Amino acid sequence: MDCWVNTNLGAPEGDANYLFPGLAERWARGTTLSQLCDEMDAAGIEKAVLVSGYGTGDTLSWVKDAVNRFPERFAASHIIDPRQGMDAVRLVDSLVRNDGYRLIRMMALMTQKPYDDAIYFPIYSKCAELGVPVSVNVGFPGPRVPSKCQDPFALDEVCHFFPELKIIMAHGGEPWTDLCVKLMLKWPNLFYMTSAFAPKHIPAAIIRYLNTRGADRIMWASDYPVLTFERCMKEIAGLEIRDEETLAKFVAENARKLFFSA
Fold it and tell me: Which keywords are on file for this protein (predicted)?
């Protein structure tokens, strides 16, 4: 099976270990590039999206090195802090133009600002100009911080203002998953990624949308090491997905088009 994952490296700020058995040990262990490739091979995973700018250590150099060594296997993404203003805009421009980054991420749990706040708009504008997607966390965050800033309804304004910008809702969207579906029905460049949700816990509204009108809009991600590849593969096999074509889009093809197409 060809699958894509959203891979975080380096222990994060904030504690979500209470949600995922064994996560603290996986963070403490760390992950070498050879370990990551071996675990992907064992699970039948061909490609991964790596994340820099999250947690401790020099994740930026780690991710750049991985992509440079295995460009056919890895794409790069980076978590941007929009509160840094023009420094953040210049960083996005450099990462995309000079280092081939394919995704820019932002997290309201970090900024404590909703996604229609003015601080994000320079980043949205730059990403629209560069033709690179933006991923934002939606729903209650795992770390114990206030949650209302991650209400996906704020993306209604963003999608209207930047119709050409591809936006990916990540990390589940609960308890607003029905709203996530409504927004995707309305805005053609809005997508949903299941990162940090064990496949067996993917909300029913998302599976229904995947099996009907949303086959091109929903993609699986593990948020490794939050979830192990082995667990994800076992649980994906138990999902009620209508046919092999829809399954292929969910685990591979939708991500291929967004992150690995020229």
Answer: Hydrolase, Lyase
- Coil, helix or strand for 137? strand
Decide: helix, strand or coil at residue 50. strand
Q: What is the pLDDT of residue 219?
A: 96
Helical H segments across 44-85, by residue range: 59-69
How many domains would you assign to the chain?
A: 1
DSSP assignment letter at 91? H
* pLDDT of res. 224: 87
The CATH number of residue 239's host domain is 3.20.20.140
What is the pTM (predicted TM-score) of this model? 0.91
pLDDT band at residue 261 using 50, 70 and 90 as cut-offs: confident
SS3 76: strand
Q: Which two tokens stand for residue 51?
A: 């994340």
136, 170 contact by CB (below 8 A): yes
Question: Is residue 186, in this structure, part of any structural domain at all?
Answer: yes
The 3-state DSSP class for residue 38 equals helix
What is the DSSP annotation of 169-183? EES--TT-HHHHHHH
For residue 65, being part of any structural domain is answered with yes
- Structural domain of residue 109, as residue ranges? 6-260
SS3 call for 19: helix
92 — pLDDT class (breaks 50, 70, 90)? very high
How much is the pLDDT for 80? 96
pLDDT at 40 over 80: yes
